[in-house]
Specification:
The protein has a single domain, classed as Sodium/glucose cotransporter, CATH 1.20.1730.10. The protein has 509 residues and is mainly α. Helix 6 runs antiparallel to helix 7, helix 9 packs across helix 13 and helix 11 packs across helix 20.
């Protein structure tokens, strides 16, 4: 059953990739689907790019173990801050200004918005450096699940996942990714709901599981009775940092913001906001909620020997073959959807912002180069994942947190402020870029020298994002004002008159 379901699943993905070849003949079509993607596809593409095996296996297990049922706050934050507020604050303005400036990537947006080729190149280099380890980390959550479900070497899993993702992304570009993301999103919605029900039923149902969790104590964490079933858990401050990094971080990640570039129309934004929020509430909320019950299986888990990544697979190991098959496809869906989004963002950035800007290239050559680079990026990430698995090196998994902190810390504030304010300066962007990348690199290399609160990459990444929100307006206030002609051109995007029906906006008498 497990093998048969996987074969059907892979056949559908490849078929969609081949079907969407007609949408991937030029740069706009390959990278953005011709900016004609509807609300359901855009919302699901946003959600499935957001949540991967890293969340389902790694973060849900780790934070559920540390904070108990309070870890669900991370999922709620992902829905309200990472989805609802991101769509509401960034969605419409990103779509309008990016189209007006004819930008298809985040570095290209910075370059045209501020009239700075250097700024575009700087943003491209940050993405290139910090995206690859993030891409490699997507494979990590699959190893234990495949070891539990199949007698197949993890290396085979990595290679199969890499090859299949490459086929449908190379063939159909963004449109194939968006359609496959929709299918993968449906699998994730159904899968996480079924898994939660099955796991809790194995412990006597929700109330029985909650009662069992309330009876667990861990003196190394706290002596407070019932703390793991409480509203805020044993460590509210560090839980807050988790919420900030995993929720606010999406506002500055290139592969997430790029989804707004491709939105079809106003109605797509309105519907997409609701759909993506509900999707995140079910998937992210469900993942962290499930992880919160991890301590019920503490008699089967050895954290010191096997790490936090062993928690979720252990919780699932006693389920039926059919349920395990669904879980494997669920985690594959989560990982492949995020992987496809990352490699499109990486290849388009390198092609459009670094190579094509230096050498004259036709659109067909740019699309061909992007396809080549997709193969390169996927191959590098697969090799790194195999190196980690074979040598038990853990630095790649650690770099996932570093990657989020560096990219979101660098881009969140400059990007968001530049959509709303005429006063943001090029110098402010540079200071934010440098501050965040230096902070996160130092956190990786000399972590023991940091204050205790910042020794966690999650806490350091959250601080980088918050600091950027202060750095950009502060530096903009004390540096030379941007060129008025350049700014007027960018903000002219919002001044164009659009006639709409009264069902959309009330008119005068």
């Amino acid at each position: 059953m497990k093998i048969a379901l996987l074969i059907v699943y892979f056949a559908v993905l490849i078929g969609i990739g081949l079907y969407c070849r007609k949408h991937a003949t030029n740069v706009d079509g390959f990278v953005l689907g011709g900016r004609s993607v509807g609300p359901w596809l855009t919302a699901f593409a946003y959600g499935t790019s957001y949540f991967s095996a890293v969340v389902f296996v790694g973060y849900a297990g780790q934070f559920g173990w540390k904070y108990g049922i309070a870890a669900t706050w991370a999922g709620i934050g992902n829905a309200l801050i990472g989805s609802l507020m991101a769509w509401f604050i960034l969605g419409r303005r990103t779509r309008i200004m990016s189209q007006h400036l004819d930008s298809a990537t985040m570095p290209q947006f910075f370059g045209k918005r501020f009239g700075s080729e250097a700024l575009k190149i700087g943003a491209s280099i940050i993405i290139f450096i910090f995206m690859i380890p993030y891409t490699a980390s997507l494979y990590n959550g699959l190893s234990r699940l495949f070891g539990m479900a199949f007698d197949i070497d993890y290396s085979v899993c990595v290679i199969v996942m890499a090859v299949l993702t490459a086929i449908y992304v190379i063939a159909g570009g963004y449109m194939a990714t968006a359609i496959n993301d929709f299918i993968q999103g449906v699998i994730m919605l159904v899968g996480i709901s079924a898994v939660i029900y099955a796991v809790l039923e194995s412990k006597g149902g929700f109330m029985s599981s909650l009662d069992g969790l309330a009876r667990i104590t861990d003196e190394s964490v706290t002596t407070t009775p019932g703390i793991f079933s409480s509203f805020f858990g044993p460590d509210p401050l560090n839980l807050l940092f988790v919420v900030i990094l995993t929720s606010l971080g999406t506002w500055g990640l290139p592969q997430m913001v790029q989804k707004f570039y491709a939105i079809k129309n106003e109605q797509a934004i309105q519907k997409g906001t609701i759909i993506s929020t509900l999707f995140a509430l079910v998937v992210a909320g469900g993942c962290y909620f499930l992880g919160g019950f991890g301590r019920l299986f503490s008699d089967q888990i050895d954290i010191k020997a096997n790490g936090f990544d062993s928690i979720i697979p252990t919780m699932l190991s006693g389920l039926s073959d059919g349920m395990i098959a669904l879980i494997v496809i669920l985690v594959l869906s989560a990982s492949m959807s995020t992987l496809s989004s990352l490699v499109i963002a990486s290849s388009s950035t390198l092609t459009i912002d670094l190579i094509a800007s230096k050498f004259e290239m036709s659109e067909s050559k740019q699309v061909f180069l992007m396809r080549i680079l997709i193969v390169v990026f996927i191959a590098i990430s697969a090799v790194l994942a195999l190196i980690q698995y074979k040598s038990s090196v853990n630095f790649i998994a650690q770099l996932m947190g570093i990657s989020w902190g560096a990219m979101a810390g660098s881009f969140l504030a400059p990007f968001m402020y530049s959509l709303y304010s005429r006063n943001v300066t090029t110098a402010a962007c540079w200071v934010c870029f440098i501050f965040s990348t230096v902070l996160m690199t130092a956190n990786m290399l000399i972590r023991p020298m940091f204050p205790a609160i910042m020794q966690s990459p999650i806490n350091a990444g959250s601080i980088a994002m918050i600091a950027g929100l202060i750095i950009v307006p502060l530096v903009s206030a004390i540096t030379s004002k941007p060129d008025k002609i350049l700014i007027d051109h960018a903000f002219a995007a919002y001044d164009r008159t659009t006639v709409v029906p009264q069902s959309v906006a009330l008119g005068k008498k």
